[in-house]
Design a protein that fits this description.
By secondary structure, this protein is α+β, with helices and mostly antiparallel strands. It contains eleven helices and eleven strands.
Length: 288
C-alpha cells in the first residue's frame, strides 16, 4: 500500500471493501457513510432498530436517499474509524433462505442454469441426476447445498469473505466446514494476535447479551444477516450486525428462541446457537 499522495479521507475511501452481495448494490457517499440499494424490508428493520437494545451494534442509519434515479439506504461506513482495516463477514444461522422461498420453489420450481454451473464448479457430483439432465437447480436447492458444504448446518455460521490489511481478499470459503478449518481461517485473519481475539470475544459476549434482551430479535426470523468483524494494527477491534435484507417480522404475538433446531414451519434460524459456536470456535483460536 502506498499512502502518499492520498489524503486521509481518500485513503479511507480506497479502503472500502465489499465482501458479499452484488457490486452494484453499494455506492460511496458523504465522508464516513455509504449507500446500500434500497429494500423495503431492510428499511423497516432499521426503523424498528432505532428503539432497540441492538442499536449500538448496527450501522448508524440515516434514512432513504435518492441518487441517479435510484433509492438507497444511507448508513454509516463501519470501516471509517479504522486505519488499514482487516475485515471478515460471517453469515449467521443454520439456514440462509426464507421458508416462503422454499414453499414457492416447491409449488413453482424454477431451475436455474447459472446456479447449476456454480454448483458444478465447486463439486461436479453436487447436482442430482435429474438436475444434471435439466442442467438447472432451484435457488433454495442451491442454497441448501451451499449450507451443507460450508459450516452453516454444522456450526450455525459460515465465513463469507475476508479482506486483510495487506490488500489480500478471499471469498473462496464455500467448502470451509470443519471446526478445525474455521479455526485456521480465524487464526490467519487475526495474524495470531491473542489480544485481538480477546477483544472480539468480549464484543461477541456483549452482542449475545443484547440479543437476549432485544425485542426486535425475539420477533424476527433473522436470515442471511452477518456479523462484520473489523480490526486494525492499533488494536481496535469491533463487531457489528449487518444485512437485514431477509430479516422478517413474525406474525403479531409470535416469537422465536433462535437456539432450537429448525423444522419447516417453526421458522427458527439457529442464530443464538451459531453465535455460541462462533464464540467457542474463537476461544479455541486463543488457546490453540
Ligand atoms: P448479501 O445478501 O449477498 O450478503 P447484500 O447486498 O445484502 O449482500 P451486505 O451483506 O449488507 O450486502 O453487505 C455486503 C458487504 O458490504 C459486507 O460483507 C461488508 O463487507 C460490506 N458492508 C456492508 N455494510 C457495511 C457498512 N455499513 N460499513 C462497512 N462495510 C459494509
Ligand atoms: Mg450479506
Ligand atoms: Mg443481504
Amino acid at each position: 500500500f502506498v499512502h502518499w499522495p492520498f489524503s486521509v479521507s481518500q485513503r479511507k475511501r480506497i479502503n472500502w471493501v465489499q465482501l458479499a452481495g452484488h457490486k452494484g448494490n453499494f455506492k460511496a457517499a458523504d465522508e464516513g457513510t455509504i449507500l446500500k440499494k434500497f429494500s423495503e424490508n431492510e428499511m423497516q428493520c432499521f426503523e424498528k432498530l432505532r428503539n432497540d437494545a441492538l442499536l449500538p451494534f448496527v450501522p448508524g442509519y440515516h434514512g432513504v436517499v435518492e441518487k441517479d434515479g435510484e433509492s438507497f439506504l444511507h448508513m454509516t461506513d463501519l470501516l471509517a474509524n479504522f486505519d488499514l482495516p482487516n475485515v471478515m463477514d460471517c453469515k449467521m444461522g443454520v439456514r440462509t433462505y426464507l421458508e416462503e422461498e422454499l414453499v414457492r420453489a416447491r409449488e413453482r420450481p424454477k431451475p436455474r442454469e447459472d446456479l447449476y454451473n456454480k454448483m458444478v464448479e465447486v463439486d461436479s457430483e453436487g447436482p442430482t441426476p435429474h438436475e444434471h439432465s435439466q442442467r438447472g437447480v432451484t435457488k433454495p436447492r442451491y442454497m441448501q447445498w451451499r449450507e451443507s458444504m460450508s459450516s452453516t448446518n454444522t456450526l450455525g455460521f459460515r465465513i463469507e469473505g475476508i479482506k486483510k490489511s495487506d490488500g489480500t481478499c478471499r471469498t473462496d470459503f464455500k467448502k470451509t466446514r470443519s471446526k478445525r478449518d474455521v479455526i485456521q481461517v480465524f487464526k490467519d485473519f487475526v495474524g495470531g494476535n491473542v489480544n485481538i481475539v480477546k477483544s472480539y470475544l468480549s464484543k461477541l459476549t456483549e452482542i449475545q447479551q443484547a440479543l437476549k434482551t432485544s425485542d426486535f430479535f425475539k420477533r424476527h426470523e433473522v436470515i442471511g444477516s452477518s456479523l462484520l468483524f473489523i480490526h486494525d494494527h492499533t488494536g481496535n477491534a469491533q463487531v457489528w450486525i449487518i444485512d437485514f435484507g431477509k430479516t422478517t417480522a413474525l406474525p403479531e404475538g409470535q416469537t422465536l428462541s433462535h437456539d432450537i433446531p429448525w423444522q419447516e414451519g417453526n421458522r427458527e434460524d439457529g442464530y443464538l446457537w451459531g453465535l455460541e459456536n462462533l464464540i467457542h470456535t474463537l476461544e479455541s483460536v486463543s488457546s490453540a
